[in-house]
Q: What sequence folds into this?
C-alpha cells in the first residue's frame, strides 16, 4: 500500500492544500484521499482545489475540531492522507438530506455502495468489508441514520465521526465529489484483501451519582430539566459549581453516561442554552437515568488501547482515528495530545484522523469515545 | 420572606422536582413496557445489543462447530496453555501419537512430542517461540518428526497459532501425519533422480552426437522448410568454402546449387523427403568460388513435437576424391591390360627371335669368316637383338621382365652411372646430382633400375633441349602417407611408411595435363622417332618392385618424376654389378630338348651339339616323358614352359619323379620371376629367357649339366 501524507497550518484553503501536497510528485493519483481541516479553511475551496488536482481520485473528509496526522495532533490545520493499493476497492455515497426517513435513505445509500463494488448484500463479510461514516456534526441526525445503516449493512464494521467546527457549533461540512456539503452524511464502503481491525476506546467509569431527564426535546437533544430542575442548574449543582462556570472543559471533565445492559453509553454535553437547558451531543430521552462519570488515567488507558491494537495488527499501515473533541480537550488540558500522537506511531506507520462532534460505532452514535480503524498489518 | 417560608418553598420545589422525576421515570417505564418505538434511542440500544447478542451467539455456534470439527478432524489438534501444557487432545491425536487425552493432559508438548534426540538443539528454541507467540514456529507450516508413545517417530507437518481468550494467551497446534506423503515424495524424488540421470545421459549422448557432427568429414546441414539454412558443420563449411565464423542467417539452400538443381530439389526431391522421411540421391553443390562439387546425399525430414515435418537435414559426401581415384584405377587397369597384351606379344616374339638369332649365329659359324654373307648375318643378329631389347621393354612394362633381385644402394648405383648419364644427355643441359649419403638399401633388379634412371634422364634431357633447363637427380628417404598414395600411381594395395625415393626433375618444357595422363600408355610418344615404350617400361618396373611413381609437371616449367621404392627388410650392404664370368666347356652326354616350337628345338639342338652334347627332342610335355623313358642315359633336360597337351610344369613333375637327379633347365619367353613362380622348391637347375644368345645358352647348359667338367676362366 502506498501512502502519502501532507499538512498545512495556512488558513487560506487553496494555499493550505497546495502546501500540503507540494512534496508529492506531479503524477500522483491516489485511489482515495482523506482530508480533514479546521473551520479556518474554506471547505468549498478545499474540496474544489483537491478535486481539480486529483480528478481521478476519491476525495473524502470533513471539517474538524482538531486534526491528527502521523506523530502530530494539530489545531486549525489541514491534513491529507492519500492511499493507493490494488488490495482495496472503495465506493462512496451520500445522504444529502438527513431529515428524510432514515431506513429509506440508508437502504438507498447501501444499494449504491454495493452497486459500485458490484456486490450483493449477502456477499458482505466482516473480515473483508468495512464502512466508514462522516456526518454533519450539527445535524443531530446521526442516531437514526447510523442505526438504519447498521441494519442495512449487517455485521460488517461500521465506524466514523461527526464533522466539527472547532467548538463554534455554527457550520460543519462533509467533503466529497469535489464539494463541501451540510446536513449530509457520507458513507465509504471498502472491500479489502488487507487485514483490518476496528476498535472503540473510552476511559470513564460511571459513579453512583445519577440524574433523571425529566423534560427534553429529543429531536434537538435539548434537556430542559434534570431531576425536575432546570438542567444547567442541576448539573452545576451536582458538580458544586455555578451555572456560569459550565464550560466545554467542565463538560469534558464531567461527562454523563447512560448505563444499559453491561455497557455505559457516554452522553456529552455541548453547551448551556440561554434558558438554562443543556444541549447534548447525542441522543437523550425523557425518563433516561444518566450517571456522572469519573476519569481513569488517560495515558494509562491509551497505553492499553495501543497494546490491544498491537496484538491484533502488530503495526498497521494506516490508522484512521475519530476522536471525540472532549477527549482532545482533556488531552489539551493535561497537555498530552502530542504525547498520545507519538504513542500512536508505535502501532501504525501512518495516522490520519480528526476530533469529532460525535462518533459512530456499530449503529450507535456515541460521545467522548475514540473509534479507530487499523488498516493493513505487518 | 421568613426563613420558614423559604424552607417551605424549597421543600415544595423539591417535592415538585421529585414528582416530576417520578412522573418522568414512570412514563419511561410505561413506554419501555408498552411501546419502545416511542423511545428511538432506546430502540437503537436494543438493536445494538441485539446485534452484540447475535454476534455472541454466532461465536458460540462457531465454537461448537469448531469443536465438532476438532473431534472429527483427520489431523491431530492440540490446545496448549501459555506455558505449553497440553489442555486439549483430539481423537486423531490419540490415534497418531498413542496417548489418551487423559494421560497427556497437562504435559508439556515439547517434552512429549519432540523426539528426545532433538531436545538438545531445539527445546529452548521451541519454548522461546511459544513464549513469544509470534516466532518462527507460529502461523507457518513446518515439517518435522514427532515422537509417539511407543518411541517411534512419525513424519509430521504442524502449524501453531496464538489464540487470545480474554487476557489469556493460548495456543492451537495442528499436526498432520505426512509419513505416506514423505514416502511418496521419496519415490517421486527417486524417479526424478532417475529422470535427471537419463536426461544427463541423453544430453551427453546429444553432445557426443553434436561433437561427431562437428568432426565428421561429410557435409551436414540443416534448414527450415523454406530452405533457410541454420546449421552447417565444419566439414560442410569447408566443402562449400564458408569460413567457420560466417553467419548463416541470410543463406538459403539455393546459394549452394545451380538453378536447375534447386528446381529439381524443390519440385522433386524435397517432396519425396517429406513424404518418406529419408531420401538418397546424388546432388551437385556449387561452392562459393563457383566450383561444382558432385556429392552423394541423404536427405532427411526432421519432425516437430507433433510429428509434422519442420526441418530438412542433408548429409552430403564429397565425391571428388572418389571420382579421381576411380579414374586413376581405371587408368591403372587399362595399363595393366595393355601390360598383359604386351607381355604375351613379347613372349611370342622372343621365341621367334631365339630362332632368328640362333640360326643367324649358326649360319655365321658355318660360313667362311670372310664371306660377304657374314655382314648380312651380323645385321640380322643386330636387328634381332634390337627387337629383343624392345621385347624386354615390353616385358618390363608388363612387369614380367627378367628380375634378379638384390639389395642395392640407389645413391651408389647412380654415382656409378654418373659418367654414362652425363654422356647420354645433351651437353648443353646441366645435370646435377643430390644423392643422400646414407640411404637404406632397396631390393631391386639392378639392370631394370638402371633402365629407369636412363629412360628418365634421357627424357628429361630431351625436354630441356630447347628450354635451356637443367636436370636434377636426387635420392633420399621419404614418408609416404595415405594422401601421397592418392596422388601417385601404384599397383595393388601399397603400404605407407618410409620409402627410398629417386627423383628426376627438369626445368624443361613440361607437359600438358592431357599428355601427363598418357605418358605411361604403351606406344604413346611425343618424340618423332620414339616407340612409346620407355615410360611404360618405367611404370612396369616400378610396379614390379612394389614401388610408387608420382609425376608432377607444368607446361613451360618442367617435370618431376618421383619414384618411391620400399626399403629392404634385410639390412645387407648394397652391391653394384659384378663382372660377368666367361666359361669354356667341352661337353658330353645326352640332353633332351622339350619344346613345341620346331625352330627352337632345332636351334637348341644345334647349340648343344656344338659344345659336345648328344641331343634328343620332344614336341611337348607328354612326348618328352616318352622320350625320357626311352633314353635312360639322358643327363640333362631343356624344358619349355608353355606347350600343348602337357605344359612344362606338369612335365617337370613327372620327369622329376622318374629321376630327380637329372638336372632341368627351364626356357621361357616370360621373365624368370614369372616362370620360376610355378617351380618354387622343385629343384630346377637353371633358367634362360628367350631369346638368348647361343653362347649364353651353351654356358648355362654346360654349367648345369657338366659342372664337373667346367673349367672357369676369368
A:
Amino acid at each position: 500500500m502506498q501512502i502519502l501524507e501532507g499538512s498545512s497550518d495556512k488558513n487560506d484553503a487553496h494555499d493550505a492544500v497546495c502546501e500540503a501536497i507540494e512534496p508529492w510528485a506531479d503524477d500522483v493519483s491516489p485511489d482515495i484521499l482523506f482530508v480533514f481541516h479546521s473551520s479556518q479553511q474554506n471547505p468549498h475551496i478545499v474540496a474544489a482545489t483537491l478535486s481539480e488536482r486529483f480528478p481521478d481520485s476519491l476525495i473524502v473528509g470533513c471539517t474538524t475540531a482538531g486534526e491528527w496526522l502521523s506523530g502530530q495532533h494539530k489545531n486549525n490545520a489541514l491534513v491529507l492522507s492519500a492511499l493507493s493499493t490494488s488490495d482495496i476497492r472503495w465506493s462512496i455515497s451520500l445522504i444529502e438530506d438527513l431529515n428524510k426517513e432514515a431506513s429509506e435513505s440508508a437502504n438507498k445509500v447501501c444499494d449504491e455502495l454495493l452497486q459500485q463494488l458490484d456486490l450483493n448484500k449477502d456477499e458482505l463479510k466482516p473480515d473483508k468489508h468495512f464502512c466508514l461514516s462522516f456526518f454533519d456534526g450539527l445535524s443531530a441526525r446521526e442516531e437514526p441514520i447510523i442505526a438504519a445503516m447498521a441494519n442495512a449493512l449487517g455485521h460488517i464494521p461500521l465506524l466514523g465521526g461527526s464533522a466539527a467546527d472547532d467548538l463554534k457549533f455554527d457550520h460543519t461540512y462533509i467533503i466529497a465529489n469535489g464539494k463541501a456539503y451540510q446536513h449530509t452524511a457520507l458513507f465509504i464502503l471498502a472491500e479489502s484483501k488487507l487485514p483490518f481491525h476496528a476498535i472503540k476506546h473510552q476511559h470513564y467509569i460511571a459513579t453512583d451519582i445519577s440524574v433523571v431527564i425529566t423534560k427534553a426535546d429529543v429531536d434537538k437533544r435539548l434537556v430542559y430539566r434534570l431531576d425536575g430542575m432546570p438542567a444547567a442548574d442541576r448539573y452545576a449543582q451536582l458538580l458544586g459549581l455555578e451555572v456560569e462556570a459550565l464550560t466545554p472543559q467542565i463538560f469534558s471533565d464531567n461527562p454523563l453516561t447512560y448505563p444499559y445492559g453491561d455497557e455505559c453509553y457516554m452522553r456529552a454535553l455541548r453547551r448551556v442554552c440561554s434558558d438554562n437547558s443543556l444541549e447534548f451531543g447525542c441522543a437523550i430521552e425523557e425518563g433516561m437515568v444518566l450517571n456522572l462519570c469519573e476519569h481513569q488515567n488517560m495515558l494509562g488507558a491509551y497505553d492499553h488501547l495501543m497494546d490491544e491494537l498491537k496484538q491484533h495488527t502488530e503495526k498497521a499501515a494506516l490508522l484512521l482515528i475519530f476522536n471525540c473533541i472532549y477527549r482532545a480537550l482533556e488531552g489539551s488540558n493535561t497537555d498530552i495530545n502530542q504525547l498520545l500522537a507519538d504513542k500512536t506511531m508505535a502501532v501504525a506507520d501512518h495516522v490520519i484522523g480528526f476530533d469529532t462532534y460525535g462518533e459512530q460505532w456499530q449503529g450507535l452514535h456515541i460521545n467522548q469515545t475514540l473509534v479507530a480503524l487499523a488498516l493493513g498489518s505487518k | 420572606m421568613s426563613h420558614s417560608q423559604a424552607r417551605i418553598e424549597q421543600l415544595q420545589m423539591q417535592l415538585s422536582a421529585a414528582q416530576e422525576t417520578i412522573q418522568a421515570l414512570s412514563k419511561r417505564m410505561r413506554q419501555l413496557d408498552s411501546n419502545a418505538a416511542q423511545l428511538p434511542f432506546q430502540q437503537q440500544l436494543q438493536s445494538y445489543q441485539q446485534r452484540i447478542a447475535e454476534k455472541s451467539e454466532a461465536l458460540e455456534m462457531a465454537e461448537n462447530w469448531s469443536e465438532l470439527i476438532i473431534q472429527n478432524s483427520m489431523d491431530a489438534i492440540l490446545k496448549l496453555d501459555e506455558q505449553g501444557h497440553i489442555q486439549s487432545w483430539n481423537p486423531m491425536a490419540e490415534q497418531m501419537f498413542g496417548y489418551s487425552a487423559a494421560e497427556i493432559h497437562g504435559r508439556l508438548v515439547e517434552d512429549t512430542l519432540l523426539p528426545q534426540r532433538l531436545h538438545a538443539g531445539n527445546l529452548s528454541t521451541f519454548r522461546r517461540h511459544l513464549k513469544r507467540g509470534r516466532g518462527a514456529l507460529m502461523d507457518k507450516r513446518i515439517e518435522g518428526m514427532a515422537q509417539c508413545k511407543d518411541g517411534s517417530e512419525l513424519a509430521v507437518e504442524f502449524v501453531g497459532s496464538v489464540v487470545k481468550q480474554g487476557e489469556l494467551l493460548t495456543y492451537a497446534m495442528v499436526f498432520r501425519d505426512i509419513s505416506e506423503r514423505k514416502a511418496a515424495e521419496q519415490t517421486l524424488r527417486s524417479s526424478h533422480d532417475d529422470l535427471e540421470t537419463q536426461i544427463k545421459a541423453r544430453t551427453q549422448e546429444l553432445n557426443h552426437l553434436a561433437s561427431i557432427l562437428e568432426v565428421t568429414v561429410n557435409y551436414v546441414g540443416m534448414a527450415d522448410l523454406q530452405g533457410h539454412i541454420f546449421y552447417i558443420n565444419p566439414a560442410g563449411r569447408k566443402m562449400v568454402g564458408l569460413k567457420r565464423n560466417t553467419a548463416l542467417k541470410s543463406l538459403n539452400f539455393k546459394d549452394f546449387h545451380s538453378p536447375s538443381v534447386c528446381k529439381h530439389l524443390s519440385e522433386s526431391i524435397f517432396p519425396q523427403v517429406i513424404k518418406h522421411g529419408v531420401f538418397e540421391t546424388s546432388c551437385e553443390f556449387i561452392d562459393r568460388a563457383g566450383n561444382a562439387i558432385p556429392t552423394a546425399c541423404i536427405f532427411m525430414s526432421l519432425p516437430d513435437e507433433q510429428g509434422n515435418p519442420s526441418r530438412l537435414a542433408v548429409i552430403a559426401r564429397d565425391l571428388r576424391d572418389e571420382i579421381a581415384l576411380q579414374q586413376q584405377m581405371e587408368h591403372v587397369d587399362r595399363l595393366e591390360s595393355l601390360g598383359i597384351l604386351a607381355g604375351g606379344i613379347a613372349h611370342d616374339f622372343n621365341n621367334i627371335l631365339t630362332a632368328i638369332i640362333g640360326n643367324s649365329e649358326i649360319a655365321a659359324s658355318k660360313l667362311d669368316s670372310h664371306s660377304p654373307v657374314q655382314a648380312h648375318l651380323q645385321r640380322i643378329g643386330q636387328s634381332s637383338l634390337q627387337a629383343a631389347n624392345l621385347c624386354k621393354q615390353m616385358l618390363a612394362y608388363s612387369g614380367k621382365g627378367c628380375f634378379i633381385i638384390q639389395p642395392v644402394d640407389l645413391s651408389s648405383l647412380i654415382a656409378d652411372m654418373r659418367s654414362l648419364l652425363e654422356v647420354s644427355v645433351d651437353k648443353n643441359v646441366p645435370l646435377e646430382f643430390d644423392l643422400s649419403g646414407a640411404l637404406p638399401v632397396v631390393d631391386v633388379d639392378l639392370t631394370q633400375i638402371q633402365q629407369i634412371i636412363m629412360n628418365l634422364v634421357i627424357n628429361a634431357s630431351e625436354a630441356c633441349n630447347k628450354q635451356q633447363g637443367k636436370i636434377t637427380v636426387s635420392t633420399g628417404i621419404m614418408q609416404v602417407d595415405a594422401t601421397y598414395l592418392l596422388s601417385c600411381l601404384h599397383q595393388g594395395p601399397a603400404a605407407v611408411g618410409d620409402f627410398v625415393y629417386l627423383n628426376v626433375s627438369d626445368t624443361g618444357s613440361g607437359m600438358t595435363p592431357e599428355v601427363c595422363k598418357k605418358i605411361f600408355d604403351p606406344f604413346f610418344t611425343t618424340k618423332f622417332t620414339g616407340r612409346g615404350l620407355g615410360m611404360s617400361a618405367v611404370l612396369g618396373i616400378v610396379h614390379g618392385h612394389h614401388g610408387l611413381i608420382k609425376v608432377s609437371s607444368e607446361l613451360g616449367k618442367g617435370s618431376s618424376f618421383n619414384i618411391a621404392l620400399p626399403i629392404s627388410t634385410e639390412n645387407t650392404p648394397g652391391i653394384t654389378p659384378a663382372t660377368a664370368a666367361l666359361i669354356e666347356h667341352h661337353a658330353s652326354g645326352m640332353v633332351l630338348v622339350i619344346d613345341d616350337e620346331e625352330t627352337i628345338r632345332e636351334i637348341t639342338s644345334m647349340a648343344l651339339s656344338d659344345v659336345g652334347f648328344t641331343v634328343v627332342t620332344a614336341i611337348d610335355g607328354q612326348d618328352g616323358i616318352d622320350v625320357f623313358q626311352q633314353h635312360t642315359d639322358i643327363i640333362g633336360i631343356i624344358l619349355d614352359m608353355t606347350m600343348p597337351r602337357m605344359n612344362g610344369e606338369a612335365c617337370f613333375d613327372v620327369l622329376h619323379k622318374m629321376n630327380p637327379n637329372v638336372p632341368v633347365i627351364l626356357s621361357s619367353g616370360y621373365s624368370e620371376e614369372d616362370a620360376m613362380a610355378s617351380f618354387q622348391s622343385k629343384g630346377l637347375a637353371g633358367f634362360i629367357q628367350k631369346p638368348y644368345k647361343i653362347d649364353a645358352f651353351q654356358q648355362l647348359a654346360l654349367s648345369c649339366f657338366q659342372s664337373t667338367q667346367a673349367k672357369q676362366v676369368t
